[in-house]
Fold:
Amino acid sequence: MKVSVFSTKPYDRQFLEQANAAQGNRHDLHFLEPRLGADTADLVRESHAVCAFVNDSLDSAVLELLKERGVRLVALRCAGFNNVDLVAARELGITVARVPSYSPEAVAEHTVALILTLNRKTHKAYARVREGNFSLDGLLGFDLKGRTVGIVGTGKIGICLASIMQGFGCRVVGHDPRHDPRFIATGASYVGLPELFAASDIVSLHCPLTPQTHHVVNAEAIASMKSGVMIINTGRGALVETRALIRALKSGHVGHVGLDVYEEESDLFFENLSDQILQDDIFARLLTFPNVLITGHQAFLTVEALTAIAQTTIGNISSFAESGVPDHPVSVEMLA
Ligand code: NAI
Structure:
């Protein structure tokens, strides 16, 4: 199949070409650096499939443009599908596929990296020691042992994080409309969302972004959390109401924040903007807090994850080419 690959980075190209070669170069991959949106959809030429990533926009207008150009498959190279208008895709007869699982460990381990860095301030220590400053003032942390970690969304990543945090001696509680016995088997337990917010020293978000989870961490939720709580979001930016978070950071109610995702990240992340003036004042305010650590949507970025993402994506395209049904379809029902 001819495939237009949007938002291509060098590592995407490397791993997708490897996976395609392993299948005898069955597909003609056309790599494009721009993000997919209404202004770039016409870059699609004679392609039956589009391969897209987290910040590509696949709203109804873009899907209509893709349809006009003969696109029949959107192969997402990510797990989340909040950036696709699934109702419009169905109406237009465009099939959507995703990579439901690649390396939950990659995301869970990055979550732990954020927790440990915020707590033990290794990012500050690194800079200090290199400058000959061996003062320990301001580097005070806390033992993770005995602390309560609240996991919102106990799917693949949430379960993996539950295991790791219990290795530190933490008590882990989770909230999810679906109770998974594998989460309980780690030694963790389920509680209601209000109880999770009230009991947790660390709240970590691992549910998909849906209308139900949009701003699940809002002003009211934050107010119900412990003073000094650490909030970690490696799920999707809009799970957190950023303005409410900033207010709670200013008041001191929230003690630490670790973000790998941000509500308006599509204008920022995955690009080198270091020689430009930052236009997003809310993001700029977040960067001023000494107890906020932001990474640019890199939790998935491991060799194992990229290998699995590329293999599954090429597999989705191959199965769609053969049977009209990808291995891992996304349907409107999954929004429920
Ligand atoms: P998963 O599908 O295995 O688990 C998601 C869980 O969230 C499910 O158990 C589901 O029942 C639960 N959930 C749904 N609605 C909920 C609600 N209202 N409240 C609480 N839980 C709810 O997905 P997985 O693989 O664990 O990934 C989770 C999310 O992490 C993805 O949707 C994606 O947005 C994000 N992600 C971020 C990455 C990054 O690089 N930062 C990489 C991969 C995923």
The two ends are 32 Å apart (CA to CA). DSSP finds twelve helices and twelve strands in the chain. The chain has two domains: 2-102+302-335, 104-294.
